[in-house]
């Protein structure tokens, strides 16, 4: 059995809103929205990967808050784990630095106004429950 590789997705929350990032690459994903994040590197913890990926992709300083219940299959051997995170005081505002061409802060009522990547829909549903709570 091949080793599973965890991809961390950030449910970046601020003032009751969720940050969505629109993919610009690869072509088959471009134009669809996702929770920003990326692969956990060997020897790296998932929460450290989350902080690193958000710094690389959005130029922000964040703090993981908690793991969102669930695990969602991606293209083998990858699986998606979502984490809630918040911006640290003094962090710059998020900017689409790599793999994205737009960002949107979505209120709970706006969560389904964007076309999420299929593999992120279940994670976003979990986060929607957290936002409403």
From TrEMBL:
Coiled-coil ranges from the UniProt annotation: none
Protein name: 8-oxo-dGTP diphosphatase
The Nudix hydrolase domain, residue ranges: 3-133
A GO BP annotation: DNA repair
Alphabetical list of Pfam families matching this protein: NUDIX
Record keywords, A-Z: DNA damage, DNA repair, DNA replication, Hydrolase, Magnesium, Metal-binding, Mutator protein
Top EC class of this enzyme: hydrolase
Domain of life: Bacteria
Cofactors, names only: Mg(2+)
EC number: 3.6.1.55
PANTHER family xrefs: 8-OXO-DGTP DIPHOSPHATASE (PTHR47707), NUDIX HYDROLASE FAMILY PROTEIN (PTHR47707:SF1)
InterPro entries cross-referenced by the UniProt entry: MutT-like, Nudix_hydrolase, NUDIX_hydrolase-like_dom_sf, NUDIX_hydrolase_CS, NUDIX_hydrolase_dom
Recorded catalytic activity of this chain's protein: 8-oxo-dGTP + H2O = 8-oxo-dGMP + diphosphate + H(+)
Family, as annotated: Belongs to the Nudix hydrolase family.
Any one GO MF annotation of this record: 8-oxo-7,8-dihydrodeoxyguanosine triphosphate pyrophosphatase activity
SUPFAM superfamilies per the UniProt record, alphabetical: Nudix
CDD domains, sorted: NUDIX_MutT_NudA_like (cd03425)
Organism: Streptomyces dysideae
């Amino acid at each position: 059995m091949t080793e599973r590789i965890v991809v961390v997705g950030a449910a970046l929350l601020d003032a009751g809103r969720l940050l969505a990032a629109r993919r610009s690459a690869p072509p088959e994903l471009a134009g669809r929205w996702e929770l920003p994040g990326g692969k956990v590197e060997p020897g790296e913890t998932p929460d450290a990967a989350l902080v690193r990926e958000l710094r690389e992709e959005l130029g922000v300083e964040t703090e993981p808050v908690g793991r969102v219940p669930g695990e969602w299959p991606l293209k083998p051997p990858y699986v998606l784990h979502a984490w809630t995170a918040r911006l640290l005081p003094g962090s710059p505002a998020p900017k689409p630095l790599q793999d994205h061409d737009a960002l949107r802060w979505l209120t709970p009522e706006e969560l389904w106004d964007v076309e999420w990547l299929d593999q992120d829909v279940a994670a976003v549903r979990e986060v929607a429950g957290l936002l409403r709570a």
